[in-house]
Amino acid sequence: MSCMAPWLLLVLGISAGAAEPEVKPAETAVRVDCIGKLRHGILAAGGETTGTTITFNGIEWELRLKDEASREFAKTHQKQTVSVTGTLRRFVGMARPVRWIVEAETLAVPDEKASDKTTVTVTGPLKSTESEASPFTIDAGGHRWPLLFRNDPNSQTNAKALVGLTMTARGAVELVNPADKSGPAIVVDTLKATKPKP
Q1: Which of 13, 54, 143, 171 could pair with 36 in a Cys bridge, judged by C-beta atoms 3.0 to 4.6 Å apart?
Q2: Which fold has domain 119-193?
């Protein structure tokens, strides 16, 4: 009996190690309105893909489609420009260390008058950094979002007095450093203090 116990533990250990760990989302989420090229039916090593992506400005996010109607839309609009709204989350995987996945709520053909930029809305604590390029960040969705104040430099000056408060930033998305894919930043259109819950 004592000889079998280590063998049994070894078998259980191998079985447990072979199972792929569950991918855990970040605690908070980020609202997105995307316009980009849709790809569907994608395969990846280790199965670490939702099978559907949207690509814009050198950024690629996976889409998790909610129902059969969404999957059918993705099939018929393969490699076309579409608009997607939903919640963006940063996941940690095994084969790919970082995955960005949009829980797609709507998929549609964009209106001809629609803006072609992808926007995000993030809510979280405003923090000061040492970076001249992006002196402020907001932590949301498992990512520290650098804030770029190109559109309104006065907002950057005003932000100094707001450090530590929970803020909501909305703006266009771009990569901070496209060469190293260090993660997205927000080109801020609006920055507002979030009202505390009663």
Answers
A1: 54
A2: OB fold (Dihydrolipoamide Acetyltransferase, E2P) (2.40.50)
Do 129 and 47 touch, CB atoms closer than 8 A? Answer: no
Q: Which two tokens stand for residue 179?
A: 């060469």
By the 10 Å C-beta count (0-12 exposed, 13-18 middle, 19+ buried), 187 is classed as middle
Q: Which of 148, 138, 139, 137 is nearest to 175 (CA)?
A: 148
pLDDT digits (tens, 9 = 90+) for 63-109: 999 999 999 999 999 999 999 999 998 887 777 778 889 999 999 99
- The two tokens of residue 43 are 């395969």
Where in the sequence of the chain do the CATH 2.40.50.140 domains occur? 30-108
pLDDT tens digits, 1-39: 444 444 333 333 333 333 333 444 444 569 999 999 999
Q: Which two tokens stand for residue 159?
A: 């932000």
Local structure of 76: helix, strand or coil = helix
Give, in words, the CATH class of 30-108.
mainly beta
Pairing, β 166-175 against β 184-193? antiparallel
**What is the value of pTM for the model shown?**
0.76
Q: How far apart are CA 173 and CA 35, in angstroms?
A: 11
Q: What is the DSSP string of 158-192?
A: HHGGGTTSEEEEEEEEEES-TTTT--EEEEEEEEE
